[in-house]
Amino acid sequence: MKIDRVEATTIEDTRGRPTIEVTLEAQQGSTLHSNSQGRTLLRATASVPSGKSTGSHEALELRDSESGSVEQAIENVQFEIARAIMGREFASADELDAFLIELDGTPDKSRLGANALLAVSIAAQRLFAQAEGVPLWRAIATRAGTTPKAPRLYVNVMNGGAHADFKLPFQEYLLVVEGKTSEALPIAHEAFKKLGERLSSTELEASGVPMGDEGGYAPTFSDLQQPFKLLAELVQEFPGTSIAIDAAASELYRDGAYHLLDKTYTPDELLALYVHAASALPIHSIEDPFAENASEDFTQITAALGDKILIIGDDLTVTDPARVKKAAERKEINAVLIKPNQIGTVKETIEAVRATYAAGFAAVASHRSGETSDTFIADFAYGIGAHGLKAGGFAQSERVAKYDRLLAIEREAGAV
Ligand code: 2PG
Ligand code: MG
Q1: pLDDT tens profile 14-26
Q2: H or E segment at 139?
Q3: What DSSP element (H or E) covers 83?
């Protein structure tokens, strides 16, 4: 395939911050082996999300440090990347990604920007799927060598931490819903509504429940147990559901201790809190229970709880195949969060998935806290047969779009 048009522009994410959108065009049939007749125009657009609680080992999102603009990343796509890829023959999306990685030439994508590279990489993956005449999720499955499957819904019902001014210490309280999307989604919606009614009926939130960055409620609690109690009640009412949290503990760690509400916890005390929660409550998984460099604490919690629940690495592993392998050797986790923009190309994201599966771990695909309406992550989750997909709460259409895409995939998959 030869790409003959590359365009990049700024759009706003759910936090109103600028991010990058790229459109690529190619002529189908413009290979050495085709004649000039019957060519169709292929066109694909992709935009990239942006994180707030970012791991320090993530690939670099290129932004102007003062204004936060992505002008430089856009320029990099429009000039250097466009010039390098246009008119060149790429036999596969993998070949194109390998070319992008080499063009950037840095280990953390800091020259051209992981945001610039990923937008091109995702749009290119879409172009190749179109050229092959297969749905995006199918193209991803073929590329990754995985068996497509509907992911569990990881619906972020209560937002805390950096996503809600730390009104709740843990960043994400999620309801995990099992089953095929068309059955799981109505249950998730109903439970989300119920939770909203309950929160607004408490005196505390009588004036209406505020919402957090990821489209979930952002209530204030004075004790750590209260949100868990509310969720445990919901789980009882809605069979097939369970609780997950993303502690995003790197954000809670200062001066050798973890700060939760008005108390500090040593790593051992925090471990005891998790162990107690996992024995008393229907907990399915805990993500980033400790700070990103607390290797031994991760190993300890996985030894204590790993046969019962998932311990998911996010800031710890940053979708980096090498880091996933290291985490496997050290037995730090038994599941990996997969976020394409932590590494910068679809190719490397797939390599991180391979490393995850090679270790016998579960993969949970994830959006970012600053999202766009791009639904690539839903196709990716389905294509790799992910254990789950984190796509946020229902109060933002950018989150709902991902769940709706899973519904559409279910129909497409049934029709094949
Ligand atoms: C996380 C993500 C997504 P952010 O920590 O898992 O929920 O948040 O995009 O802010 O890193
Ligand atoms: Mg996380």
Answers
A1: 999 999 999 999 9
A2: helix 136-144
A3: helix 82-85
Which residues lie closer than 8 Å to 234 by C-beta, 6 or more apart? 175, 191, 194, 195, 241
Cα–Cα dist 345/7, whole Å:
18
Neighbours of ion ligand 2 (CB under 5 A): 246, 314
- At 126, the amino acid letter reads R
Q: Give the pTM.
A: 0.96
Cα 404 to middle of ligand 1, angstroms:
21
Taking the centre of ligand 1 as the mean of its atom positions, its distance from the CA of residue 132, in whole angstroms, is 33
Scan for tokens 């099992």, then name that residue. Answer: 178
Instruction: List all residues whose CB is within 6 A of at least one atom of ligand 1.
Output: 51-54, 172, 214, 246, 248, 314, 337, 366, 368-369, 390
What atom in ligand 1 is closest to the CA of residue 171? Answer: 5
- Residue at token pair 């960043």: 171
Residues acting as catalytic residues: 214, 339
pLDDT tops 70 at residue 37: no
Domains and CATH numbers, the chain: 3-133 (3.30.390.10), 144-415 (3.20.20.120)
Q: What is the pLDDT of residues 101-114, one digit of tens each?
A: 999 999 999 999 99
pLDDT score for 209: 87
